[in-house]
Write a structure and sequence with these properties.
This protein is of the alpha+beta class and 345 residues long. The chain folds into two domains: 2-199, no CATH class; 209-344, no CATH class. Helix content is 44%, strand content 23%. Helix 1 packs parallel to helix 7 (105-127).
Length: 345
């Protein structure tokens, strides 16, 4: 994470000669509005207004500290940053802002380090007299290396923040685009003396990473139970029926009287011991795992993983589940459990 953040900081300013400055997955809003926003909700609404109007300068101001924004505009690098302005033919309207809570102090400190790195890079640009985009583009390889060595030295010996961030929130923003519902994910962070900033490139990266991880856990648990079921079947244990086994045994559903659930759980844990640290349930029918759902707070509030991935059951026929898939599935763990339970009862 730290290396990624530092690389992003450097890439944002070295975009024209390092070839690493694609920030098209970032979100933002205007300098003056960002500084004057009374709350993160205002910043979010202002951001969407800027997207709808295609206001690149306003969007830029929500991406970086003011000193960085001023430098990028002054040297004419705004176009080079290729800020995503969305589809101007479509209009987006915010319908709900869900705040998952404030980030812990260590994450706020990491944001301060990221933003401080950007400010320090601007200081280096000023030190080397890089006042225009041509100056940056024509900088010799030796000077590029020299600047990056100073930047890396600053990062490795980082001790004092150049930016004061007091609060970071994890947001899910629900909106409609020409009437069609969708959602996006942001970190909103408050810079003392400037106001709220928004970032969704890193938030999307982290959410995707967590979602991939929780889906992998669901897959591992499902496969662990399939292996355990196979072993019990080969030992002439009756595994027939349609039932749910849950990490919370009080929520088990329709367990056959002849099934040794504790023995089955022990077999499964041999294949995936980490399942003891998670909340999960498996839907078993026709001697195999049809569906697995996992959640756990470390993946983020409300993050749910499934196997098959990004799926929810629609019906059961002949003991087999049918599914619909949606990579933006917003159904909760409890709702999926209830769906599966209702199909048995």
């Amino acid at each position: 994470m730290k290396k990624i953040l530092s690389f992003m900081s450097a890439a944002a300013l070295f975009v024209t000669f390092a070839g690493c400055g694609d920030t098209s997955d970032s979100s933002s809003s205007e300098e003056s509005t960002g500084s004057g926003s009374s709350g993160y909700e205002d910043a979010v609404y202002d951001y969407f207004d800027a997207v709808n109007s295609g206001d690149s300068e306003k969007l830029l101001s929500y991406m970086y500290p003011e000193k960085v924004c001023d430098y990028l505009k002054n040297v004419g690098m705004l176009d080079a940053l290729d800020i995503d302005q969305g589809d101007s033919s479509k209009k987006m309207e915010v319908t709900e802002i869900v705040n998952a809570g404030e980030s812990p102090e260590e994450e706020i400190a990491e944001w301060e380090k990221q933003m401080s790195g950007m400010v320090y890079m601007v200081d280096l640009m000023d030190e080397y007299g890089l006042e225009t985009a041509d100056d940056v583009e024509n900088l010799s390889a030796d000077k590029q290396q020299e600047i990056m060595e100073k930047f890396n030295d600053y990062e490795e010996n980082y001790s004092e923040s150049l930016v004061d961030i007091t609060t970071v929130y994890d947001l899910t923003v629900k909106y409609t685009e020409d009437g069609e519902p969708d959602e996006d994910y942001f970190y909103a962070y408050y810079v003392e003396g400037e106001g709220w900033k928004l970032d969704n490139s890193m938030r999307r990266y982290i959410k995707k990473s967590k979602q991939t991880s929780v889906n992998a856990s669901a897959s591992s648990i499902g496969k662990a139970y399939n292996s355990a079921l196979t072993e019990m079947d080969e030992s002439d244990v009756d595994i027939s029926g349609t039932y749910i086994i849950c990490s919370d045994s009080s929520k088990n559903v329709n367990i056959p009287g002849s099934l040794d659930v504790d023995g089955l759980n022990t077999y499964a844990e041999m294949y995936f011991s980490d399942m003891k640290e998670l909340n999960w349930f498996v839907f078993i029918s026709n001697g195999t795992v049809q569906y697995t759902v996992v959640t756990e707070e470390s993946y983020g509030p409300g993050t749910v993983g499934t196997w098959p991935a990004y799926s929810q059951p629609t019906e059961m026929s002949g003991g087999d589940l049918s599914f619909e898939s949606d990579d933006k599935m917003s159904v909760s763990y409890d709702e999926l459990y209830q769906m599966c339970s209702d199909m048995i009862k």
